[in-house]
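Q: Hi! First time doing this. I have a protein sequence and I read that you can turn it into a structure. Is that right? Here it is:
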Amino acid sequence: MRLYTYPGAPSPQRVEWLLVEKGIEMPMEKVDLTQGEHLRPEFRAKSPNADVPTLALDDGTFISQVPAICLYLEDRFPEPPLYGQSPEDRARVIMWDHLGYINGFRAVAEVLRNSSRAMQGRPLVGPHNYDQIPALVDRGRQRVRNFFNDFNGRLAQSDYLAGDFFSMADITGYVMCNFARWIKEQPGEEHVHLRAWQDKISQRPAVEKVIQRR
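A: Yes, that's right. Below is the predicted 3D structure, encoded as structure tokens:
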């Protein structure tokens, strides 16, 4: 297997973190997003949405999209489990992982991609260009702040996002909070439970290997 990635980008970080947690080693090939390599025909043949990460299997199959890659790797390499031990656990992990993505990750991207000059014409990930909508920036910031409030409330009830065990949902949530630094947003002093959870997760060896080394 081979992982097509871009160092430091938040979506690839989620998969790279899973690899570290599971002790999976594989070659990684950088796709330079700044040079538009992800939009070239040879890469689009591998990744239909022209994005990273994309996983190449030994039989020539390509899998893109973080949830698809992570669930595939979880099934191939079940230990240690990152989606819990039961069907109910798995459903909760997928639920909180998705909520972290749509309400956190995409909110940060809404701000960044609609305000950055470097992303003119690229407010959405994918093969197509669109106009930026500056009016979405303020809404995106409010969405990020609501995310902090909502996840702080969740973590007042649970040690980890999906229950009493570390999971893929925590990886996504932590990466999202780190990604929010790109738009100068972070949990405040009022987010006591969220900040305590961040401190706990930051002690995992994978954070230094995947997040802090960038």
